[in-house]
Automatic annotation (TrEMBL):
Protein name: Transposase (putative) YhgA-like domain-containing protein
Molecular function GO terms recorded: double-stranded DNA endonuclease activity
Residues covered by the Transposase (putative) YhgA-like domain: 5-212
Pfam families in the cross-refs: Transposase_31
GO biological process: DNA recombination
InterPro entries to which the protein is assigned, alphabetical: Rpn/YhgA-like_nuclease, Transposase_31
Length: 333
C-alpha cells in the first residue's frame, strides 16, 4: 500500500485531461476559462517540472491553446493535504523550473503563461499565505519603491473544506473524480465519511461500472482504509455489503492487505524488540562476567539495578567497571 495516499488518489482521479478540464473549468475565473480551447488540453510529461523537487509536488501539468491563437497556456494543478506556510515560494520554484524546461525544450522564444491552481483539503481549511507578498515582513507594498522590485502574484486556492456535496458533483463530469473529491474532503474524518456514505454509494457504483472501474473503486476503498483512522475499515465493509455488494470482493482484498500489513508491522516490531532485548541481555551478561572476574561476584542489590537499567545505563556501567577500584564505584550515580 502507498505511503502517500492523498497524492495517489488525487493523481489517479485527475491525470486524464477530460477529468482535469472539468475541474479547471469549475474553478478558473470565467473570463479566462472562456478563452481556453478545452479540446486542446493535454497532459504534459511527468518530468516537465524537473526532478530537482523529488516527491514534493503533485506534478499534474496540462497545456492548452488560448484565445484561438497558438499561445501556450500551462495549467499547473497542485494538491495540498496540509497548510504549507511557504506555498507561494514553493509555487514560484515550480514556475521557474517550468519556464527553464520550456526554454530548453523550445530552444528559446517567449515563455508560456502558467496558471497555478492549488486544491487544498487541509484540516480546518486553508489558513496559510495565498500571495507572495504575505511571506515578507514588512510587506513589500508597505515600503515605498519596493513593491515593483519584488515578484508579485497570487495563488488560486480551492479549499475543499468550504464546498458542499453539490459543488463537488458539479466540478466533475465523471464519477471517479467526484468520489475522489468527496474522499479528499471527508476521508480523514471516518465518522463523517460513514454518515455520508449512503449519499455517495450510487456514485461509487457508477465508478465501478466505468472502464477500469474495479481498479478505481479499489483506489477509493484503499484510500478509506489508509486515512480514516478513527473508524476501522470493517465498519465500511458493512456499508459496502449493504450498499454496493458487487464491491465486497474488492473490499475483502483490501482488508486482507491491511491484515498482512499489520502482521508484517508486528513481525518487524517483534524483531526489533528481540534485537533490543538481545543486546540488553548481552550487556547484562558482560557485566556479570566482569564483576565476577574483578570483584568476585555481584551483590543482589546491584543485580536488581542491572535488571531495571536502560541501554544507556548498562553502557555506562560497562565503561566504569573497566577502571573502577570497587564495585560500588561502578553503580555510584
Amino acid at each position: 500500500m502507498t505511503t502517500r495516499p492523498h497524492d495517489a488518489l488525487f493523481k489517479s482521479a485527475f491525470e486524464l485531461p477530460e477529468h482535469a478540464a472539468a475541474l479547471f473549468y469549475a474553478i478558473l475565473p470565467p473570463e479566462l476559462r472562456d478563452l481556453i480551447a478545452w479540446e486542446t488540453l493535454k497532459r504534459e510529461a511527468g518530468t516537465f517540472i524537473g526532478t530537482q523537487l523529488g516527491d514534493r509536488h503533485s506534478d499534474l501539468v496540462f497545456s492548452a491553446t488560448l484565445g484561438g491563437k497558438p499561445v501556450l497556456l500551462y495549467l499547473l494543478l497542485e494538491h495540498q493535504s496540509t497548510n504549507h506556510p511557504y506555498m507561494p515560494l514553493r509555487m514560484l520554484t515550480y514556475l521557474g523550473l517550468a519556464c527553464e524546461r520550456h526554454i530548453k525544450k523550445k530552444k528559446g522564444g517567449p515563455l508560456p503563461l502558467i496558471i497555478p491552481v492549488v486544491i487544498s483539503h487541509a484540516p480546518g481549511g486553508w489558513t496559510a499565505a495565498t500571495t507572495f507578498g504575505e511571506l515578507f515582513d514588512p510587506h513589500p507594498a508597505s515600503v515605498p519603491g519596493v513593491a515593483r522590485l519584488i515578484p508579485s502574484f497570487s495563488l488560486l486556492i480551492e479549499d475543499l473544506s468550504t464546498r458542499t456535496d453539490e459543488d463537488l458533483r458539479d466540478w466533475a463530469q465523471s464519477a471517479f473524480p467526484r468520489v475522489a473529491l468527496w474522499l479528499l474532503r471527508d476521508g480523514r474524518d471516518g465518522e463523517e465519511l460513514l454518515r455520508s456514505f449512503d449519499q455517495w454509494a450510487a456514485a461509487l457504483t457508477s465508478v465501478m461500472q466505468a472502464t477500469n472501474g474495479m481498479e478505481a473503486v479499489a483506489q477509493c476503498l484503499r484510500y478509506i482504509a489508509l486515512v480514516s483512522g478513527n473508524v476501522t475499515f470493517e465498519n465500511f465493509r458493512a456499508k459496502i455489503r449493504e450498499q454496493i455488494p458487487a464491491a465486497e470482493e474488492v473490499a475483502m482484498t483490501i482488508a486482507e492487505e491491511l491484515h498482512q500489513k499489520g502482521l508484517e508491522t508486528g513481525l518487524e516490531k517483534g524483531r526489533e524488540e528481540g534485537r533490543r532485548e538481545g543486546r540488553q541481555e548481552g550487556r547484562v551478561g558482560v557485566l556479570g562476567k566482569l564483576s565476577s572476574l574483578k570483584f568476585g561476584g555481584m551483590p543482589p542489590e546491584y543485580a536488581a539495578l542491572i535488571e531495571a537499567a536502560t541501554d544507556e545505563q548498562l553502557e555506562r556501567y560497562i565503561e566504569r567497571i573497566l577502571t573502577a577500584d570497587t564495585i560500588d564505584a561502578v553503580f555510584s550515580d
